[in-house]
Amino acid sequence: MTRTGKPHIPIAMTTIYTDEEIRFMKGLANLGLEHVGFGGWHVMHGLSQGFRCAYCDRDFLASLNEYDSLQLDHITPQSCKGESTKENTVACCWTCNHLKGSYPPKGITREERIVDSRHYVEARRSTREAELAKIRLFVRRDSPTADDQTPSG
């Protein structure tokens, strides 16, 4: 809130944001939440995606950990000349953003590139899950179990 008691909404917002996005941000400001840890781009993508990860469908509003994992991903990475525009960015979780890395998705339309990225992330996730399963097995096999810790008696 400003000193006048009105929500602080940037003037440029009217040319950048949709009416729905402005109402949402004003609603947050009226609740005293105008600085809730994400900027306008996060709001735009969060609203348009139902506050879910574009690649794994994680619900960003389920918990603080999920909320704090929200990041913006360049569909076509900046390293591949992707621009920082609404058309070339999506909200995704930290894990999917990390798994996707600088992968240059195939496709002509935005949706085709998102679908291709989703398939790539799913394949990488599957590989990483298999690696983690091996690590779990190794660590748990070589670590003392709760039964080993029980006093004899």
Describe the fold and architecture.
With 153 residues, the chain is mainly α. It has helices at 13-16, 19-30, 40-48, 64-68, 94-100, 110-142, 146-149; strands spanning 70-74, 89-93. Strands 1-2 form a two-stranded antiparallel sheet. The radius of gyration is 21 Å and the shape is flat.
Helices and strands in order, then pairings?
Blueprint lengths: L12 H4 L2 H12 L9 H9 L15 H5 L1 E5 L14 E5 H7 L9 H33 L3 H4 L4
Antiparallel strand pairs: 1-2
How would you describe this structure in keywords?
single chain, 153 residues, mainly alpha, two-stranded antiparallel sheet, flat
**Physical arrangement of strands within the biggest beta sheet:** 1-2
Rg over alpha carbons: 21 Å
**Residue runs with pLDDT of under 50 for 5 or more positions:** 6-15
Number of helical elements: 7
Helix content: 40-55%
Q: Return the structural class.
A: mainly alpha
Q: What proportion strand?
A: 5-15%
What is the typical, i.e. mean, pLDDT? 81
C-alpha geometry: flat
Main sheet overview = 2 strands, antiparallel
Count of individual beta strands: 2
* Terminal CA distance: 65 Å
Secondary-structure element series = HHHHEEHHH
